[in-house]
Amino acid sequence: MAEDLDSKFRSPEAYELARLALERLETHRVWPTPVNYELWSQVIAEPNGPLARELERIMVSGEPITDDLTEQLASTFLPKARLSEQIRDTGQALSRELATAEQAIRSAQETSETFSNRLEETSRTLEADPSGSALQEVVADLSEATKAMQAQNASVERALAASTSEVAMLREQLEEVRKEAATDPLTRLANRRAFDDRIELAREEAEAKGDYFCLVLLDIDHFKKFNDTWGHQTGDQVLRYVASVIRKRVLPPRFAARFGGEEFAIILPGESLFEASPLVNTILKDVSAASIRRRSTNDNLGIITLSAGIAGYRAGDTIHELIERADSSLYKAKRRGRNRLVVEGDG
């Protein structure tokens, strides 16, 4: 698929794709920033892809397309394209450092082999002529060879120490790149792409071990009101506040992510519906425990509440089926008055 898209962007169709992308941006009154252009170009090139479906959902819901939202979409759906250059450069630097270390080790091996050969020659010289003059020559020769080997070993140690330090730094850079590719830039929780990977892993582990896990979906109640009343920056403040509460309560091996828009997801490996409920109720209580104030004006925004739904994994479930059941429980919580948890099977 990636090769198909790449060839499409490089083909004679590219100009037509660019024109259609700009038209689509104008139609939806989205400012043609580089990130927005990249997103809509991908949508035009892959109209039935996950990015196109997510943008369609957002537009149908009436959610405004802000800079923060487009950054989130880009980090979720375009991480490979946006981070490939960083990964490539770091990978090349790692290769160079490993080549340097390999060369240092090879030099040390060659020096060691030379020293061994000189020892053999010395042994033969002493056997042939054990006189004092021959011994003096042997001692001088061995002294010279030993000094050369010591100098070479010191050089190898310095080279390996430098390479080890550089490789450690490059590993840290690669880890940062991986984290960035899996993190929602606004809330600093895992993004949708990371969630998809983690829930598939949870499913595979549950199937292999005959174990179970729970999926929780949470949604901020009346979130559109915050955006409409106070503006999108305040809406972002609310998202960050909720995310901070979730992050505080959801510790490994539990896993939390921004699922999309004002929705969050939590994966609870090895936990039953009964075991998961207290955690979710604690999060709902913590979020609503205090009113928050608008950062720019100090206006009181009131109490933030969440609705939540939980579903438990059943042997043979697809991820889609599990999400559907959690989503159904979430919407039951909405219909029953919000600010509450509904567990699947509850009514």
What does this structure look like?
The structure is a single chain. The protein is α+β, with helices and mostly antiparallel strands and 347 residues long. It is built from twelve helices and seven strands. The protein has helices spanning 2-10, 14-27, 34-45, 50-61, 67-77, 79-128, 132-181, 192-209, 223-230, 232-249, 273-287, 319-335, and strands spanning 213-220, 255-260, 263-269, 291-293, 300-303, 306-312, 341-343. Strands 2-3-1-6-7 form a five-stranded mixed β-sheet, sandwiched between helices. Strands 4-5 form a two-stranded antiparallel sheet. The longest helix has 50 residues, at 79-128. The model is unreliable at 1-12 (pLDDT under 50).
Summarize it.
This protein is of the alpha+beta class and 347 residues long. Helices cover 67% and strands 11% of the residues.
